[in-house]
């Protein structure tokens, strides 16, 4: 990581190493670009308001595509099934069903980090809510999982921004389907 320009404290190195091992279990080879993506998509799930616990997607030539999702919202697990026009749309609809919000998706980008069918996808999502703009990013060998995590990353950032502005005091009813 130092050769790539990153100076990491012990706890940061341990976190990155855990994610590196997970990635290495899914890929044949791990490239420098994969390591950079791990650093850029550094996830702080222990402090996140919304955390992806599970995602199963069914897609193909016959629709509609569907997503079965479990999220932890403030530590409480909730689940749903949603459909959409493609696997990413179904996934984002599942998030909206579990965590109702008014944020609008402004940008959705997918980039392959390396070559091959086991390449990591880096997904960037930009959302806007009442003048607040937030960008989320994640990387995973599964593009739909990376998409879900990037979307949640942007929502978590909007939540932090609203908390700082005191806008989170409004009561929001999340779907109360316990797992």
Topology of this structure?
Elements: H1 10-26, H2 32-40, E1 50-58, E2 65-73, E3 76-84, H3 87-98, E4 104-112, E5 121-129, E6 132-140, H4 143-165
Antiparallel strand pairs: 1-2, 2-3, 4-5, 5-6
Helix pairs in contact: 3-4
Describe the structure.
The protein has a domain at 49-169: 2-Layer Sandwich (Double Stranded RNA Binding Domain). It is 34% helix and 30% strand. It is built from 4 helices and 6 strands, in the order ααβββαβββα. The strands form 2 sheets. Strands 1-2-3 form a 3-stranded antiparallel sheet. It is globular and about 45 Å long. The relative contact order is 0.15.
What tags apply to this protein structure?
179 residues; alpha+beta; Double Stranded RNA Binding Domain; 3-stranded antiparallel beta sheet; globular; disordered C terminus
């Amino acid at each position: 990581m130092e050769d790539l320009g990153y100076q990491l404290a012990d706890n940061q190195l341990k976190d990155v190493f855990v994610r590196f091992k997970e990635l290495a279990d899914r890929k044949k080879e791990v490239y420098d670009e994969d390591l950079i993506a791990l650093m850029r998509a550094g996830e702080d799930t222990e402090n996140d308001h919304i955390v992806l616990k599970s995602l199963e997607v069914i897609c193909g030539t016959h629709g509609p595509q569907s997503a079965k999702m479990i999220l932890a919202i403030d530590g409480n697990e909730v689940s749903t099934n949603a459909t959409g026009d493609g696997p990413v749309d179904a996934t984002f609809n599942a998030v909206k069903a579990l965590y109702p919000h008014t944020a609008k998706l402004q940008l959705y980008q997918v980039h392959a980090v390396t070559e091959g069918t086991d390449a990591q996808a880096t997904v960037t999502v930009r959302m806007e809510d009442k003048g607040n703009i937030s960008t989320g990013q994640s990387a995973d060998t599964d593009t739909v999982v990376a998409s879900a995590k990037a979307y949640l990353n942007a929502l978590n950032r909007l939540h932090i921004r609203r908390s700082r502005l005191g806008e989170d005091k409004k009561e929001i009813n999340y779907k109360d389907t316990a797992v």
